[in-house]
Amino acid sequence: MYKAKVFITRRLPVELGQLEEVATVEVWTERQPPPYDVLSEKAKAIDGLLCLLTDKIDSQLMAAGNLKVISQVAVGYDNIDVAAASKRKIPVGHTPGVLTDATADFAWALLMAAARRVVEADKFTRAGLWRTWEPDLLLGPNITGATLGIVGFGRIGQAVARRAKGFDMQILYTSRYQWEAELEKSLGVEFVPFEQLLQESDFVTVHTPGADDTYHLFSDRQFNLMKPEAILINTARGTVVDPDALYRALVSGKIAAAAVDVTEPEPIPQDSPLLTLDNLIITPHIGSASRQTRSQMAKMAIANLIAGLKGDRLPYCVNPEIYV
Ligand code: GLV
Question: Is this prediction's pTM over 0.70?
Answer without folding.
Answer: yes
